[in-house]
Amino acid sequence: DVKVTQSSRYLVKRTGEKVFLECVQDMDHENMFWYRQDPGLGLRLIYFSYDVKMKEKGDIPEGYSVSREKKERFSLILESASTNQTSMYLCASTGQDRVAYEQYFGPGTRLTVT
Amino acid sequence: SQKIEQNSEALNIQEGKTATLTCNYTNYSPAYLQWYRQDPGRGPVFLLLIRENEKEKRKERLKVTFDTTLKQSLFHITASQPADSATYLCALARWGGKLIFGQGTELSVKP
């Protein structure tokens, strides 16, 4: 059974803290994605990666960075957390056919920044 | 810019009826369109994919249509059950496997 796991289900951080969200997939997928989901706005793409050490900005990259040192792991970093980054964060992965393949999502991390 | 719209209002139907959800898009010609189901507090789960040259796709009680002229996809659940209650998301494929998602439509099936 395919699996995407995220390091935490719930996280509470203070403004200005550096935050790491980890995502691991066991499907040997090349492509990995980070989204945030907010009421009324749907899922918005933050960053994605096509391969190890490759990364590209999505639609809302400001305030975030990513790291992909190993194929199975994709990390999202909030350099200095702010209250407007309170959100549900979802990681996803997909296989080589980048356009057609379905994305497999993790359970999400609900981050609260106070 | 690309825009996707789904029914913003929740859809409430009676068990056994057919639920129909709508996804409209503008300023885009996607090669593929996908539908996902999302339960509260969980990540989306892929349901169906339909290509631009396919008019209709079926999977068990699910049916998806794709009208590239109208720029619209319809998602049907026949013989709906309370267990079908969830939020349903449509997503358009962009280059490189990226998806752009609609806001989702919440479906509630009453027994």
Strand content of chain B: over 45%
Q: Give the topology string of chain A: H per helix, E per strand.
A: EEEEEEEEEEE
**Helix share, percent of chain B:** under 10%
What class, by secondary structure content of chain A?
mainly beta
Outline the secondary-structure elements.
The complex is a heterodimer of chains A (114) and B (111).
Chain A: E1 4-6, E2 10-13, E3 19-25, E4 31-38, E5 42-49, E6 56-57, E7 64-70, E8 73-78, E9 87-94, E10 104-105, E11 109-113
Chain B: E1 3-6, E2 11-14, E3 19-26, E4 32-38, E5 45-51, E6 56-59, E7 62-67, E8 72-77, E9 86-93, E10 99-101, E11 105-110
Parallel strand pairs in B: 2-11
Antiparallel strand pairs in B: 1-3, 3-8, 4-5, 4-9, 6-7, 7-8, 9-10, 9-11
Characteristic key phrases:
heterodimer; A: mainly beta; seven-stranded mixed β-sheet; 0% helix; globular; B: 111 residues; mainly beta; six-stranded mixed β-sheet
Q: Care to describe what's here?
A:
The complex is a heterodimer of chains A (114) and B (111). Chain A is mainly β. Chain A has strands at residues 4-6, 10-13, 19-25, 31-38, 42-49, 56-57, 64-70, 73-78, 87-94, 104-105, 109-113. The termini of chain A are far apart. Chain A is built from no helices and eleven strands. Chain B has 111 residues and is mainly β. Chain B is 0% helix and 57% strand. Chain B contains no helices and eleven strands. In chain B, the strands form two sheets. In chain B, strands 2, 4, 5, 9, 10 and 11 form a six-stranded mixed sheet that branches. A five-stranded antiparallel sheet of chain B has the order 1-3-8-7-6, with no helix packed on it. The model of chain B has no long low-confidence stretch (mean pLDDT 91). The chains are: A mainly beta (114), B mainly beta (111). The interface between A and B is medium-sized, with 30 and 23 residues.
